[in-house]
Specification:
The protein has helices at residues 13-18, 26-49, 54-74, 80-104, 109-126. It has 127 residues and is mainly α. It has one domain (12-126). It is globular.
């Protein structure tokens, strides 16, 4: 008699976390680059055409980002629409805050990039 392993027996916390991320292939990177490009372009378009100003636009998208991140973190499995929407909204919000730092506050891009890379490294280290 042989024993079969069912998917329920293979579920571990680490495996469940991986279920929320698409497989990293060449198509993953193509889609990711397109999402980032669309996100940055849309953020710039919103900032220029919405008429509420850079800071207010950034605040609006911060609320949108919190909502989308909450949705993404509450899912039990990978849902492509939610995942890629999160990628686009992160890109949009990041672009807006970068514009605030560089254009409005005069912070050099090299400095803000270095500081944010350090913060990201700390977050990954804690994670």
């Amino acid at each position: 008699m042989t024993t079969t392993t069912t998917p329920e027996n293979l579920r571990t916390p680490a495996r469940e976390l991986l279920n929320k991320v698409p497989e990293v292939t060449i198509w993953f990177w193509v889609i990711k680059i397109l999402c980032i490009t669309v996100g940055e372009s849309f953020a710039d378009w919103i900032n220029m055409n919405l008429g509420v100003g850079l800071i207010n636009t950034a605040l609006i998208f911060t609320v949108v980002l919190a909502s989308v991140l909450g949705w993404q973190l509450s899912t039990k499995r990978h849902i492509p629409f939610v995942y890629w929407l999160t990628v686009v909204v992160v890109s949009m919000t990041g672009t807006l805050y970068t514009d605030i730092l560089t254009d409005s506050q005069g912070v050099p891009l090299a400095l803000s990039s270095s500081v944010l890379a350090g913060v990201l490294a700390v977050v990954f280290g804690i994670w």
